[in-house]
Specification:
With about 90 residues, the chain is mainly α. It has a single domain, classed as Arc Repressor Mutant, subunit A (Orthogonal Bundle). About 35% of the residues lie in helices and about 10% in strands.
Protein backbone atom coordinates (compact mmCIF):
# COMPACT_ATOMS: atom_id res chain seq x y z
CA UNK A 1 0.00 0.00 0.00
CA UNK A 2 1.32 3.46 -0.91
CA UNK A 3 1.61 6.41 1.48
CA UNK A 4 -1.84 7.70 0.49
CA UNK A 5 -3.64 4.56 1.62
CA UNK A 6 -5.69 2.15 -0.45
CA UNK A 7 -5.93 3.08 -4.11
CA UNK A 8 -2.80 5.20 -4.12
CA UNK A 9 0.39 3.48 -5.22
CA UNK A 10 3.88 4.92 -5.17
CA UNK A 11 5.40 4.86 -8.62
CA UNK A 12 8.97 4.67 -7.27
CA UNK A 13 9.83 3.20 -3.85
CA UNK A 14 12.61 5.76 -3.43
CA UNK A 15 10.13 8.62 -4.01
CA UNK A 16 7.35 7.93 -1.50
CA UNK A 17 5.53 11.23 -2.13
CA UNK A 18 4.94 10.60 -5.82
CA UNK A 19 1.58 8.86 -6.02
CA UNK A 20 -0.19 7.39 -9.00
CA UNK A 21 -3.93 7.98 -8.88
CA UNK A 22 -6.10 5.35 -10.58
CA UNK A 23 -8.01 6.60 -13.63
CA UNK A 24 -11.45 6.16 -12.06
CA UNK A 25 -10.35 8.20 -9.02
CA UNK A 26 -8.90 10.90 -11.25
CA UNK A 27 -12.28 11.20 -13.03
CA UNK A 28 -14.03 11.66 -9.70
CA UNK A 29 -11.49 14.24 -8.53
CA UNK A 30 -12.20 16.32 -11.65
CA UNK A 31 -15.51 17.16 -9.96
CA UNK A 32 -13.62 19.10 -7.27
CA UNK A 33 -12.54 22.56 -8.37
CA UNK A 34 -10.57 25.31 -6.71
CA UNK A 35 -10.81 28.91 -7.82
CA UNK A 36 -9.29 31.75 -5.78
CA UNK A 37 -12.30 34.02 -6.38
CA UNK A 38 -14.90 31.49 -5.20
CA UNK A 39 -15.29 30.93 -1.45
CA UNK A 40 -11.73 32.03 -0.77
CA UNK A 41 -10.18 29.28 -2.86
CA UNK A 42 -11.68 26.42 -0.87
CA UNK A 43 -12.31 23.19 -2.80
CA UNK A 44 -15.85 23.23 -4.21
CA UNK A 45 -18.02 20.78 -6.12
CA UNK A 46 -18.26 21.30 -9.90
CA UNK A 47 -18.03 25.08 -9.63
CA UNK A 48 -21.05 25.37 -7.32
CA UNK A 49 -20.87 27.32 -4.10
CA UNK A 50 -20.75 24.22 -1.93
CA UNK A 51 -17.43 23.33 -0.35
CA UNK A 52 -16.11 19.83 0.03
CA UNK A 53 -15.82 20.53 3.75
CA UNK A 54 -19.48 21.54 4.06
CA UNK A 55 -20.74 18.51 2.17
CA UNK A 56 -18.60 16.13 4.22
CA UNK A 57 -19.77 17.80 7.43
CA UNK A 58 -23.38 17.17 6.37
CA UNK A 59 -22.64 13.54 5.49
CA UNK A 60 -20.85 13.04 8.82
CA UNK A 61 -23.88 14.49 10.61
CA UNK A 62 -26.00 11.76 9.06
CA UNK A 63 -27.62 13.57 6.14
CA UNK A 64 -28.76 11.13 3.47
CA UNK A 65 -28.29 11.70 -0.24
CA UNK A 66 -32.05 12.28 -0.51
CA UNK A 67 -31.89 15.05 2.08
CA UNK A 68 -28.82 16.63 0.48
CA UNK A 69 -30.36 16.63 -2.99
CA UNK A 70 -33.41 18.52 -1.68
CA UNK A 71 -31.06 21.33 -0.68
CA UNK A 72 -28.70 20.95 -3.65
CA UNK A 73 -30.80 19.61 -6.56
CA UNK A 74 -27.77 19.54 -8.87
CA UNK A 75 -25.90 17.15 -6.54
CA UNK A 76 -25.04 13.67 -7.87
CA UNK A 77 -23.92 10.58 -5.91
CA UNK A 78 -20.53 10.81 -7.62
CA UNK A 79 -20.05 14.26 -6.05
CA UNK A 80 -20.18 12.69 -2.60
CA UNK A 81 -17.76 9.97 -3.69
CA UNK A 82 -15.43 12.65 -5.06
CA UNK A 83 -15.50 14.58 -1.77
CA UNK A 84 -14.67 11.47 0.24
CA UNK A 85 -11.83 10.65 -2.13
CA UNK A 86 -10.56 14.24 -1.97
CA UNK A 87 -10.57 14.14 1.83
CA UNK A 88 -8.39 11.04 1.96
CA UNK A 89 -5.92 12.06 -0.73
CA UNK A 90 -2.26 12.44 0.20
CA UNK A 91 -1.31 15.93 1.38
CA UNK A 92 2.23 17.10 0.84
Amino acid sequence: MGPGGPGFKSRHPDQPFHCEVPTEDRKLLERITIHPDILGGKPIIRGHRLTVEELLRNVAAGDTFEKLVRTYPWLEPEDIQACKLYARRPRF
